[in-house]
Amino acid sequence: MDSILRTIKKMIGGVEDDDFTGFDTDLIVHINSALRILNQLGVGVIGFTITGLDETWNDFLGKDEAILSEVKTYIYLKVKLVFDPPANSFTQQSMKDEIKELEWRMNVEVDPRLEEIDEP
Predict the structure, then answer these.
(1) Whole-angstrom distance between the N-terminal and C-terminal Cα of the chain?
(2) For residue 12, how many other CB atoms are within 10 A of its CB?
(3) pTM greater than the 0.70 cutoff
(4) Is the pLDDT of residue 71 over 70?
(5) CB 12 within 8 A of CB 27
């Protein structure tokens, strides 16, 4: 699986050069904040953080790849709003609405009470 930092760097600004590290510290802080929020929603390995390019999506999600796309989109949107917010307020609101929907959907996906309901 791909590096979390590399993926978000590419989504934020199209940077594919691992040697360009000018904003890595900022991105890492914002990514870790988003990862913590995901943990609070019940997603991913508890206490997981990134420090650079070595940590992958598989490290964070383990075998739970069913919500990988949602997790990538969520972290991208959270980081984008803090690191490089759009000037247009309508675009900002759209991103915030998408974040809220993703939070709800991921929380429903990982809610352990749903598994208890399904069991006889």
Answers:
(1) 36
(2) 16
(3) yes
(4) yes
(5) yes
